[in-house]
Write a structure and sequence with these properties.
By secondary structure, the protein is mostly helical. The chain has 2 helices and no strands. Belongs to the GORAB family.
Protein backbone atom coordinates (compact mmCIF):
# COMPACT_ATOMS: atom_id res chain seq x y z
CA UNK A 1 0.00 0.00 0.00
CA UNK A 2 2.77 2.45 0.91
CA UNK A 3 4.54 1.64 -2.34
CA UNK A 4 1.42 2.39 -4.37
CA UNK A 5 0.91 5.70 -2.54
CA UNK A 6 4.55 6.58 -3.22
CA UNK A 7 4.14 5.81 -6.93
CA UNK A 8 0.98 7.93 -7.14
CA UNK A 9 2.71 10.82 -5.36
CA UNK A 10 5.63 10.65 -7.78
CA UNK A 11 3.24 10.73 -10.72
CA UNK A 12 1.45 13.74 -9.19
CA UNK A 13 4.78 15.53 -8.66
CA UNK A 14 5.80 14.77 -12.25
CA UNK A 15 2.53 16.13 -13.62
CA UNK A 16 2.84 19.25 -11.46
CA UNK A 17 6.36 19.85 -12.81
CA UNK A 18 4.99 19.57 -16.33
CA UNK A 19 2.08 21.92 -15.60
CA UNK A 20 4.09 24.77 -14.04
CA UNK A 21 5.70 25.94 -17.32
CA UNK A 22 2.39 25.55 -19.12
CA UNK A 23 0.70 27.74 -16.51
CA UNK A 24 3.36 30.42 -16.95
CA UNK A 25 3.00 30.27 -20.74
CA UNK A 26 -0.78 30.57 -20.42
CA UNK A 27 -0.46 33.62 -18.15
CA UNK A 28 2.00 35.22 -20.56
CA UNK A 29 -0.33 34.61 -23.50
CA UNK A 30 -3.27 36.02 -21.55
CA UNK A 31 -1.27 39.21 -20.82
CA UNK A 32 -0.27 39.50 -24.49
CA UNK A 33 -3.87 38.99 -25.59
CA UNK A 34 -5.14 41.59 -23.09
CA UNK A 35 -2.53 44.12 -24.24
CA UNK A 36 -3.42 43.51 -27.89
CA UNK A 37 -7.13 43.85 -27.13
CA UNK A 38 -6.58 47.07 -25.18
CA UNK A 39 -4.49 48.50 -28.02
CA UNK A 40 -7.16 47.53 -30.55
CA UNK A 41 -9.94 49.10 -28.47
CA UNK A 42 -7.91 52.28 -28.02
CA UNK A 43 -7.33 52.57 -31.78
CA UNK A 44 -11.00 51.94 -32.50
CA UNK A 45 -11.95 54.62 -29.98
CA UNK A 46 -9.58 57.11 -31.65
CA UNK A 47 -10.94 56.14 -35.05
CA UNK A 48 -14.56 56.67 -34.03
CA UNK A 49 -13.67 59.98 -32.37
CA UNK A 50 -11.91 61.12 -35.54
CA UNK A 51 -14.88 60.11 -37.70
CA UNK A 52 -17.22 61.96 -35.36
CA UNK A 53 -15.09 65.10 -35.55
CA UNK A 54 -14.86 64.89 -39.34
CA UNK A 55 -18.60 64.34 -39.73
CA UNK A 56 -19.32 67.22 -37.35
CA UNK A 57 -16.95 69.49 -39.25
CA UNK A 58 -18.51 68.57 -42.58
CA UNK A 59 -21.99 69.19 -41.24
CA UNK A 60 -20.91 72.57 -39.91
CA UNK A 61 -19.29 73.54 -43.23
CA UNK A 62 -22.37 72.44 -45.21
CA UNK A 63 -24.65 74.37 -42.89
CA UNK A 64 -22.45 77.42 -43.22
CA UNK A 65 -22.37 77.03 -47.01
CA UNK A 66 -26.13 76.67 -47.42
CA UNK A 67 -27.04 79.38 -44.95
CA UNK A 68 -25.04 82.13 -46.67
CA UNK A 69 -27.01 84.47 -48.91
CA UNK A 70 -26.86 84.03 -52.66
CA UNK A 71 -24.93 86.66 -54.55
CA UNK A 72 -26.90 88.81 -56.98
CA UNK A 73 -26.00 86.94 -60.19
CA UNK A 74 -26.86 83.57 -58.75
CA UNK A 75 -30.17 84.93 -57.43
CA UNK A 76 -31.02 86.27 -60.88
CA UNK A 77 -30.28 82.86 -62.45
CA UNK A 78 -32.53 81.13 -59.94
CA UNK A 79 -35.35 83.59 -60.53
CA UNK A 80 -35.10 83.32 -64.33
CA UNK A 81 -35.21 79.54 -64.32
Amino acid sequence: MKKEVSIVRKKIDYVNKELKPLGRIRQKKEREYKEALDTFNEKEQRKSTTHYKIDGGLAYELQKYYSRPLDCEAAQMVIEN
